Amino acid sequence: MAETRQASAASETGETTVTVKCTGHVRMEVGEPEFEYSFEGDTLRDFLDAFFEEHDVEEMLVAETEADASTDGWAPSPDELPGTWKKNPEGEQTRTYARVVVNGTFNEHLDGFDTELDDGDRVALMYPFIFCC
Question: Of 60 and 75, which is predicted with more confidence?
C-alpha cells in the first residue's frame, strides 16, 4: 500500500527514478559506478538534461556534429549496408565509442533521446578506456 502511494506521488510530481551505471571515463568523472538518480520528467532527454546539469560529462558523451559521432576505419565502407541502420538526429548522437543505453539497448534502437523511462529502468552511460599498442 505504501509503495502504491509512493508510486502515485511520484507520477503526480512527474519525477522518475532510474539506476545509473557509469563506465570508463564517465565513471572516473562522476566518481561512482552505479547509483539511483531521480529527475523531473519521463524521457531520456529529461534525464540527460538533469544529469548534465549536475555532472560535467555531456561533452564526453554527446556529439555536436556528424563528424564527432563517426570515425574512419581501415576497412572500406560498403555502398549499401545490410539491415536497418538509423541514427539519432545531429546533436542527439553519441560521440565515437560512447554510448547511452536504456535497459541494455542502445538508445538509437529505441526512440533516441525521446525514449520513455519508467521508475526502475537502467540507464548506462558508457565511454570506455581505449588503449593502443
Answer: 60
**Per-residue model confidence (pLDDT) at position 53:** 98
Domain ranges of the chain: 15-69+85-127
Backbone angles phi and psi of 33, in degrees to 5: -80, -30
CATH code assigned to 15-69+85-127: 3.10.20.30
Residue 4 phi/psi, 5-degree rounding, is -65, -45
Buried b (16+ CB within 10 A) or exposed e, 116-131: ebeeebebbbbbeeee
Average pLDDT of the segment spanning 116-120: 98
CA atoms of 122 and 65, how far apart (whole Å): 27
